[in-house]
Amino acid sequence: MTRAMDTRVSRRSFLRGLTLVAGGLGFGGGLGLSVPWAEAESDPLLSGRPLVRYPEKTELIQLTARPPQLETPMSYFDRAITPNEAFFVRYHNFPIPTSVDLDTWRLEVKGHVDSPLSLSMDQLKKFPVASVTAVAQCSGNSRGRFTPRVFGGQWGDGAMGNAVWTGARLQDVLKAAGVRQGGLDVTFDGLDKPAFPSVPDYVKALDLQRIMNDPDVIIAYEMNGERLPMLNGFPARLVVPGWYATYWVKNLSEIAVLAERFEKFWVKPGYRIPDTPGGAIEPGTTPKATVPITRMTVRSFIATPTSGTRVKVTERVALKGIAFDGGKGIREVLLSDNAGETWARATLGHDHGRYSFREWSATWTPRRAGEARLMVRAVNGIGESQGHEPLWNPAGYLRNVIEQITLVVV
Amino acid sequence: MRSIAAALALLLLAITGVAVAGETVTITLPPDGVTLKPGAGMEQAAVSCRLCHSLDYITTQPAGGAAQWHGVVTKMLKIYGAPIAEPDAKAIAEYLASQYGTR
Fold first, then answer.
1. What is the value of pTM for the model shown?
2. Is the pLDDT of residue A20 over 50?
3. Cross-chain CB nearest to B29 (options A54, A153, A199)
């Protein structure tokens, strides 16, 4: 930051040249592995999906290449904080941003405000610093598990992650811009722009009052203490704790206050759930009315051992996993080895706050040989939990059925 | 020193797909090698669908009925504004239904 302007320019243009060379040769990133991997062997949905290594990422399960949709292997959910390199990736349009220069990047704050802002990263970092540990989960996480099946991204269970997000409070930034009387919705746009002008740009909106009442909504420029990976939204992304990641706009570049409601494609008809209790309808039917998806449902997973693992009769098995909800916090995690007839309490790990994954652990001792099914369910702070029967909606959202693994006892 | 730093950035970008130089972060995406099943209409599908997304958007979908696949293609044209001519759209929908449909 203290370098002379000329050297920065020359260095940057040199780098641009290098990018072209590297791109032209087809280097960069890794190639998909064709070797079988553990989770794919026991999970028909994931079998055949390549494990890939994208820039700044470890090996993740590739759902799609362009735009990239990469999911986190279940083995990473044995701990509360998901490493940045293992954090899932989901974009809607292609091309996606692959190069950002902080010298020229600005966060525009405009629309129904008294003094529009054009914030550099240095200016954004001058706002009071706020941190929140929160789960980002794709609305359609586990869509591939729906019966009857629905079209859309066929995610397994890895379109979720939990990180410590640090940045500026959105309400502080809006206050600095001076929102005028009559502001209703606030829209968020990122650097990703679709290939054709006819394709809807990815823009999301939040209710202004919702933002002004919630100091945990932040513009994050750090993820687990480091800058964001490009594929997770460098240099800044919106963090809306408790709500599905569809609102967590990445590579953020523009915030606009509107004096009306925003109802463009990704808000309507996109990302809506049936206007019914639990957002559920009779499988295979069409909803009469819909509302935007917002708060996450209660979920819990057994991360280790992975389904299909062989264990020995009478030998104690250590179980680990996570549970989370839409912001009430996890009160308890329960395990069953008899199809839900009886449940035993797991030990909860450190509490990182009500928006975070709650780590849990337990031990289980197999009494007889054969296949054993272990179920997990969580209860949140207001008594909401998970059901035995999956709820259905046509977009494949809100999955929160009781999860299970099968162990082979020998 | 500066040229050494720049050369290192090149090397890193080539090896890891990531380069950080001064205030700029640049990544290079790995190649997309997804292909479709052979069949009449495959060429049109491969070219048209790839205008906006890789072909695993097709290959990872559950088997759908012909009406579902025709619906998807219509959605791509009418809602997502894909620049595909009508005859191609018809050929693509028929190809998808025959190769990735329920039987």
1. 0.91
2. no
3. A54
* A28–B29 CB contact, under 8 Å: yes
| Residue A289: both structure tokens together | 């009315």
pLDDT at B1: 58
Across the interface, whether the CB atoms of A63 and B51 are under 8 A apart is answered: no
> How many angstroms from the chain centroid is the CA of residue A37?
23
- Annotate A195-213 with b (16+ C-beta within 10 A) or e (fewer): eeeebeebbbbbbbeebbe
DSSP A273: E
- The ipTM (two decimal places) reads 0.91
**Residue B13's domain is classified under what CATH number?**
1.10.760.10
Q: At what angle do helices B42-49 and B86-100 cross, to 10 degrees?
A: 110
Alpha-carbon distance of A361 to B84, in angstroms, equals: 53
Domain that includes residue B64, residue range: 2-100
Mean pLDDT of A311-322: 97
State yes or no: cis peptide before A148, omega within 30 of 0.
yes
Assess whether pLDDT exceeds 60 at residue A94.
yes
Residue B6 pLDDT: 75
- A272-279, Cβ contacts within 8 angstroms, sequence gap of 24 or more: A272/A395, A273/A393, A273/A395, A273/A397, A273/A398, A274/A393, A274/A394, A278/A391, A278/A398, A279/A391, A279/A393, A279/A397, A279/A398
Please give the structure tokens belonging to residue A92.
Answer: 């809607």
Q: Confirm or reject contact between A5 and chain B (CB < 8 A).
A: no
Overall number of domains in chain B: 1
> In this predicted model, what pLDDT tens digit does every residue of A123-167 receive, in sequence order?
999 999 999 999 999 999 999 999 999 999 999 999 999 999 999
The token pair that represents A152 in the structure block: 């859309």
Residue A17 pLDDT greater than 50, yes or no:
no
